[in-house]
């Protein structure tokens, strides 16, 4: 462990959201893996052999033009501004190593994302951090829950499936800030963004593929905070990072789960000429977080082969005494040729790691499920950071005080020490299974299960390792409620299966996996199973008897995996954990009805019912004419409707519907709810009224009823039309050539952007919008024209008739009945 001493760089300065003197072309902070952006992809893999550590020529550096007098602003000991010239910080965007091995252009491509060897250990040892964490999650339930990791990077594509497709309270990405644009939307934007999403996925992402495989970061139960310190072009500066570190300190307890960990997969080379200036900016914040018991991990850097002899061995801030530096190893456990290194450094897998990237990397197809393979110490750092969260969780469960020092000591004392053959330096790879094992301290010990030596005997239940029925119609109950009992997070109970003949103890063990599950086969007949969830987190994938992988459903729970075969009727009752259910349709006409508390998905030959599930994903991609009904919660909900995709989020609830031909969304339970409507690539028609909005196009139709705010956007192509209907005269209009907006006196709004044709009506009178409004230089309801005829030109009888006909057509479309 590094010697921790009091820093001498405790500059006295504050934080401003928009620091004076910072320009968009400030000195670049180099990401430790990649930040080139989709407009440069596909690029060559930096390795001739993915399992060797031989570095080859990387892509040329990218440097956007910048003013010669750009400054990174620091402060001296007295708090005065200290300009640091660009010559002192030769920062540039690191050579990109995004490989052309990207996935996820369609839903069916999603499964390919998990075929690469680096994810699970090519040597078959299963010693990768992600593989270790998966075993830990199955055996002990430790997954980082109850904590939040702050990812200081290029932002996060929080709408990605791996992050739960949302942002804010009740979602996986619970909050953050964009220091590059000074707003609360830290999205990983094009053209240069994707690095932060990839990093966050390795730390805490989780997603289920169509065939039941799982992409899983090291701490998938942890929440995430996104702090964006790079702009759209990939430019960043130390001042933004300083602000982000201060933000973590100020907001460490602002979320349901406290921020315990920070990842910095970024850095710059320091030498004698610039070291003091850079450290004067960041060292006091880094020390402050360490003393807050918030661990900071940073990528060591990728420039070992080309490192300037006058520069420090590690990039900064990885070289800080308050930060744990992380290098990269290949799947054989050898230091990667590109990885910078120092004595005793932590190291994790960093070559060809697959993780989440924003949709712009592959092109927009409406499914935010894209993955790509990246290499670098940037990929290793978030895994080690997330591993520390598992150790913290295990220490807390064992009643051990979890401080910055004690967690690092635990990581080091249980790690495996290696010697680098090229430099003779030692480095450490983590054995997190050993690090989280505190023996009897975690389980409480005791002899509760031993006989008392007297009294009556207890009949030993029959233990089974699977279940097979015949052609009868079975009714089974799978009970996980006793799985997690006294310890709260430890698996210390049993799983029970009941049928008409009796109750059986199911030998879940620790060996059942997605590839080798326990099988419960109902055989033929009309079969029913009720699943009672544990207090831990379950993942359930349900498929009807027809369609892809028909009749094979999968339940992943703390301690094992069960495959359900041949059940036509399945019900699941959550036990209170962070449960996620994915359901697939049949090839017939299916109907989904979902709300805050329950959901039902039914069709020809199947009926699935859920209670208390807070994450729901439903796919209607097997055929038929499918309908989804989504209802809001009592919280402020956000509805997103796109052709073939809709989602509703509120509180800790999330509902997503893919591929449905008809979608009806309702905001009736309370809160201030927002609907976001988007177009397709062909001609679409949207109608927005104060009570109900509608979007229709080729092969689909969706409506949103009762939402206070509605935003409609046409950006994907086609000749699109929008009509806005307003009943209340107590509001104001704003218009431009591509924007029409109405804001009511009650704070509600109706906004339309990018439509080729826009029409507006207030109390059945036409309101000029677009070009006509600009020509009139005002937005004035028709009822006011007599008072001010010079503002709106007089219209002919033909004009009035044409407007009335168009208005009636819009009303018919908006209010026509549906089944």
Automatic annotation (TrEMBL):
Enumerate the Gene3D superfamilies for this protein.
Peptidase S8/S53 domain
Keyword ATP-binding assigned: no
Record-linked SUPFAM superfamilies: Subtilisin-like
A GO biological process of this protein is: proteolysis
Q: Where is the composition biased (Gly residues)?
A: 441-456
Tell me the domain of life: Bacteria
What is an example of a GO molecular function annotated in this UniProt entry? serine-type endopeptidase activity
Q: Which residues form the active site?
A: 153 (charge relay system), 195 (charge relay system), 378 (charge relay system)
For the region Disordered, give the residue spans.
Answer: 441-471
Q: Name one Pfam family in it.
A: Peptidase_S8
Extent of Polar residues compositional bias: 457-471
Keywords, alphabetical: Hydrolase, Protease, Serine protease
List, for all copies, the residue spans of the domain called Peptidase S8/S53.
Answer: 144-415
> InterPro entries, per this entry?
Peptidase_S8/S53_dom (IPR000209), Peptidase_S8/S53_dom_sf (IPR036852), Peptidase_S8_Asp-AS (IPR023827), Peptidase_S8_His-AS (IPR022398), Peptidase_S8_Ser-AS (IPR023828), Peptidase_S8_subtilisin-like (IPR050131), Peptidase_S8_subtilisin-rel (IPR015500)
Q: Which family does it belong to?
A: Belongs to the peptidase S8 family.
Protein name (database record)? Subtilisin family serine protease
Organism annotation: Aporhodopirellula rubra
Q: What is the lineage of its organism?
A: Bacteria, Pseudomonadati, Planctomycetota, Planctomycetia, Pirellulales
């Amino acid at each position: 462990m590094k010697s921790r001493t009091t820093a001498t760089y405790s500059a006295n300065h504050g934080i401003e959201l928009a620091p004076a003197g910072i320009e968009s072309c400030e000195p670049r902070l180099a990401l430790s893996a990649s930040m080139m952006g989709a407009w440069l992809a596909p690029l060559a893999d930096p390795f001739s052999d993915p399992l060797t550590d031989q570095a080859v020529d990387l892509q040329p550096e990218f440097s956007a033009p910048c003013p010669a007098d750009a400054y990174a602003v620091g402060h001296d000991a007295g708090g005065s501004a200290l300009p640091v010239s660009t010559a002192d910080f030769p920062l540039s965007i690191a050579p990109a190593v995004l490989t052309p091995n990207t996935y996820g252009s369609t839903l069916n491509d999603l499964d390919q994302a998990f075929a690469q060897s680096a994810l699970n250990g090519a040597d078959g040892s299963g010693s990768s951090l992600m593989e270790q964490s998966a075993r830990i999650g199955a055996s002990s339930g430790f997954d980082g829950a109850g904590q939040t990791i702050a990812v200081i990077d290029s932002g996060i594509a929080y709408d990605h499936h791996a992050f739960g497709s949302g942002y804010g309270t009740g979602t996986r990405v619970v909050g953050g800030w964009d220091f590059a644009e000074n707003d609360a939307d830290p999205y990983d934007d094009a053209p240069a963004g994707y690095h932060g999403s990839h990093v966050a996925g390795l730390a805490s992402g989780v997603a289920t593929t169509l065939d039941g495989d799982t992409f899983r970061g090291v701490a998938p139960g942890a929440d995430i905070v996104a702090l964006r310190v790079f702009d759209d072009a990939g430019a960043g500066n130390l001042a933004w990072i300083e602000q982000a570190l201060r933000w973590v300190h100020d907001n460490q307890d602002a979320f349901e789960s406290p921020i315990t960990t920070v990842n910095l997969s970024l850095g710059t080379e320091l030498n004698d000429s610039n070291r003091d200036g850079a450290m004067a900016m960041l060292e006091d914040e880094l020390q402050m977080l360490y003393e807050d018991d918030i661990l900071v991990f940073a990528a060591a850097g990728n420039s070992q082969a080309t490192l300037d002899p006058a520069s420090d061995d590690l990039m900064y801030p990885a070289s800080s005494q308050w930060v744990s530096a992380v290098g990269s190893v290949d799947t054989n456990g050898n230091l990667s040729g590109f990885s910078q290194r120092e004595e005793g450094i932590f190291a994790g897998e960093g070559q060809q790691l697959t993780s989440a990237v924003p949709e712009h990397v592959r092109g927009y197809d409406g499914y935010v499920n894209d993955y790509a393979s990246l290499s670098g110490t940037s990929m290793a750092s978030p895994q080690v950071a997330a591993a520390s969260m598992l150790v913290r969780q295990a220490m807390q469960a064992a009643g051990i005080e979890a401080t910055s020092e004690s967690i690092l000591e635990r990581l080091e004392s249980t790690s495996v020490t290696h010697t680098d053959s090229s430099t003779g330096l030692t480095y450490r790879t983590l054995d997190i299974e050993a690090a989280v094992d505190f023996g009897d301290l975690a389980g409480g010990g005791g002899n509760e299960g031993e006989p008392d030596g007297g009294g009556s005997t207890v009949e030993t239940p029959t233990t089974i390792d699977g279940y097979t029925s015949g052609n009868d119609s079975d009714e089974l109950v799978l009970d996980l409620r006793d799985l997690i009992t006294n310890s709260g997070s430890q698996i210390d109970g049993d799983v029970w299966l009941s049928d008409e003949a009796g109750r059986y103890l199911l030998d879940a063990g620790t060996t059942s996996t997605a590839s080798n599950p326990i099988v419960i086969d109902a055989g033929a007949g009309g079969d029913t199973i009720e699943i009672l969830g544990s207090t831990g987190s379950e993942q359930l994938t349900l498929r009807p008897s027809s369609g892809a992988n028909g009749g094979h459903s999968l339940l992943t729970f703390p301690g094992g995996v069960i495959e359900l075969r041949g059940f036509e009727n399945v019900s699941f009752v959550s036990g209170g954990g962070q449960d996620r259910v994915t359901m697939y349709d049949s090839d017939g006409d299916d109907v989904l009805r979902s709300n805050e508390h329950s959901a039902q998905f039914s069709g020809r030959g199947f009926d699935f019912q859920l209670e208390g599930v807070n994450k729901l994903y439903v796919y209607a991609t097997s055929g038929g004419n499918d309908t989804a009904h989504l209802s809001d919660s009592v919280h402020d909900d956000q509805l997103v409707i796109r052709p073939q995709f809709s989602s509703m989020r509120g509180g800790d609830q999330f509902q997503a519907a893919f591929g449905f031909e008809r979608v009806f969304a309702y905001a009736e339970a309370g809160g201030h709810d927002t609907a976001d409507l988007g177009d397709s690539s062909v001609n679409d028609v949207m109608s927005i009224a104060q009570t109900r909005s509608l979007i229709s196009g080729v092969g689909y139709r969706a409506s949103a009823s009762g939402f206070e705010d509605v935003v409609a956007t046409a950006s994907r192509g086609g000749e699109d039309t929008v009509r806005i209907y307003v009943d209340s005269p107590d509001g104001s209009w704003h218009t431009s050539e591509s924007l029409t907006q109405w804001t009511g006196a009650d704070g509600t709004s109706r906004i339309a952007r990018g439509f080729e044709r826009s029409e507006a009506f207030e109390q059945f009178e036409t309101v000029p919008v677009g070009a006509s409004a600009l020509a009139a230089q005002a937005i004035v309801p028709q009822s006011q024209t007599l008072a001010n005829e010079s503002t709106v030109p007089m219209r002919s009888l033909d004009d009035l008739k044409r407007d009335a006909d168009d208005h009636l057509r819009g009303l018919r479309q908006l209010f026509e009945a549906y089944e």
